[in-house]
Amino acid sequence: MSTSTLINQQYRLAARPIGMPKPEDWHFTTEPVRDIVDGEVLVKTLYLSLDPAMRGWMNEGKSYIRPVAIEEVMRAGGIGKVVASKSAKFAVGDMVSGGLGVQTYWTGAADDKTAALYKVDPAMAPLPKYLNALGMPGMTAYFGLLEVGQPKAGETVVVSGAAGAVGQTVGQVAKHMGCRVVGIAGGKEKCDFVVNELGFDACIDYKSGALREGLKEHCPKGVDVYFDNVGGDILDTVLTRINLKARIVICGAISQYNNTTPVKGPANYLSLLVNRARMEGIVVFDYADRYHKGVAAMAQWMQEGTFKTREDIVVGIEKFPQTLLMLFNGGNFGKLVLQVAEE
Amino acid sequence: MSTSTLINQQYRLAARPIGMPKPEDWHFTTEPVRDIVDGEVLVKTLYLSLDPAMRGWMNEGKSYIRPVAIEEVMRAGGIGKVVASKSAKFAVGDMVSGGLGVQTYWTGAADDKTAALYKVDPAMAPLPKYLNALGMPGMTAYFGLLEVGQPKAGETVVVSGAAGAVGQTVGQVAKHMGCRVVGIAGGKEKCDFVVNELGFDACIDYKSGALREGLKEHCPKGVDVYFDNVGGDILDTVLTRINLKARIVICGAISQYNNTTPVKGPANYLSLLVNRARMEGIVVFDYADRYHKGVAAMAQWMQEGTFKTREDIVVGIEKFPQTLLMLFNGGNFGKLVLQVAEE
C-alpha cells in the first residue's frame, strides 16, 4: 500500500508537569507517514494502554527507564495492525503489541528494541485483553505476586487498586494459588465487582474511611502478602496489620505520583522490623523472558472461565490527555484503554 | 552462702515516657535477696548491656517482645557471676549471660526461659565482649548482615551507627566477606576509629552535613547492602544511592525512638521499586539456635587479631538512667556497658 497519503496524529510531550498533568503538557501534532524501507513495518494503532507509570515517564531524572524527552512522542504501549511490511517478521494483517506511543501510526524496524513488537492472537482473546491481563499489567501482577510476594495456599493476600488492571489480576492469581484475597478499592461499585465478578473474598472501600476496621474484619489472621499499587496512607495502614515474615510488594504509589510536596514515606515501616517482614520493588521488564508463561497460564484460566478481566475503553486519540487523568482521580473502572481506531 | 543479708538494688519502670526518657521514669528500689530453692541460682550482676531497644520496651503495645510492666524491674541483658546454686546446671563461680535486668542480683530457676542464662568463658574473651560482639549486638550484626543483607565479595556495604555495638561488628564481618565497607557515624573521632582501628574502607561523619557527597565519593559503585540502625534522614539519603537488587537491613531507627511526632517514614522508599530492591527487618532472637556459630566465628577472628571491638564502660548502677540516655544523643563511643560490680 502507499503510505504517502496517511497522516500520523501524535501527542508529544510539551512540558514536564508539576503535580497533576494538564492537557497543555502535550502538543497534538500531525505529520505525513513516511514510506517504509527494507526491514521495517508500518503499524496502525488500534488500542493504547493508559497506565500510572506514564506519569513517571514525564519526569526528568533517573528511573528504571529513561524519561520521555520534550517534543518526543509520548511513550505508550499499544496494540496495532500491520498495514505495510518490508520484513519477514510480520505480515500485513498481523496484530502486534509493543511500544507504539501515543500516535495513530508507528513506523520502524520490525525488530526495533524499544518498541519490542510481538504478535498477538485475536482468536485467543479480544485485543484489549493484551493490554490488560495478557499484557504489561497482567505480567506485573503475575510475576510481582508470585516471584516477590510468594503467596502460599491459605495465606491472606491484600491488594490495593483492586479493580485496576494490576489489582484484578493479582487477586485472581492469588485465588488460583489458594489464598484468601482481600481487595482495597474506591467505591462500592468497584468493591462489588471484584467480589461478585472476580471472586475476591472481600473488598474494602477505602473511601468509606474504615480501612483499619475493614482489615481487622476481613483479615482475621493478619496480612501475609500486601501488593501495593497506591502508597500513602493505605500502605501505612496495612503495615499495622502484617504478619511475621510478611511480604510487601511495591508495585506503584499512585497516590503519590502527582505530589508537589515530597512523597509520604511509610511512617509505619518499622513494622518490617517487628515482624521480620520484607518490602520489595518489582519492575515487570525483569521477567520479559518468562512473559509467555504468564500469558499461557492466564489465557488457560480465561478459557476455563475462572479468570476474568474488565477494561474501561475510551474512544478517540484526541481524548488522550483527559483520559489519562482518570487514572489519578479513580475515574476509570478496570484497565483503562484508549481506542484509537476500529479493528 | 547465706543470701539473707544481701540487698538487691533495682531500677523499676515507673512511667511510660513520652519522647526522651528522664530519670523519673524509673524508681530506684531495694529489697532483700531471697533464699534460693531447689533448681534455682543466685547471680550477682557484673555488667549490664545498655541498648537502644530498651527504649522500645518502655512503650505500651505490641512489638516483638512484651513491654516492661509498670513497677517491673527494667529489662536488660547482662553478665553475672553465680554466687549460690541449687541447680546442677550452674556452679558457684560460673560466669553467665542472660536477661538479668537492671538490678544487682538475679534470683530464679537456672532454666528460666525469660532470663535464658548461659555460661560464658572468661578465658576466651573479657566479659564485656559477651555483651558486644559475642552477645546480642554481635549476633544481631552477624545474622542480620549475613542472612538478610546477603553481601557478596566485591559489593559495597554501608552501615550507620558504625561505631556502635552493632555497627562495629557489621562492618568487620562485611570486611571478612570481602566487601567494600563504608561506615556512617557522628564525629571525626568515631570515624577515625572505625577506619583506623576496625579497618573500614571509609567512614562518613553525618554531623558534617555532607552525607550525600560522602556516599558519592566513598561508594563510587553505589550501595549494595545498607544496614540501618538509625532511620530518619540518613536512611532516606542512602536510599538515593542504592543499586539494583540492593538489600536494606532494618535493624533499628534510633533517630526515631524518642519521637513525640509520628515516625518519619522513608520518603524515598520508591527507590525500592526503581531498583527492585528489598527492605527487610531483623530480630536477633530468630537466630538463637545458631548463636554459637556466630560466637565461634567472631571469637576465632578475635584470636587471629582480625576483629576488634570497643566498649564504653560506665561504672555504678546508680548511673543507669543518665547512661542509657547517652545512646540517644550519641554520647557513647562503642558498645555501652554499665558495670554494676567488680568481677
UniProtKB/TrEMBL annotation, chains A, B:
Q: Which UniProt keywords apply?
A: Oxidoreductase
Pfam families, per the entry: ADH_N_2, ADH_zinc_N
Q: Which residues form the Enoyl reductase (ER) domain?
A: 19-338
Q: Which Gene3D superfamilies match?
A: Medium-chain alcohol dehydrogenases, catalytic domain, NAD(P)-binding Rossmann-like Domain
Stated name of the protein: NADP-dependent oxidoreductase
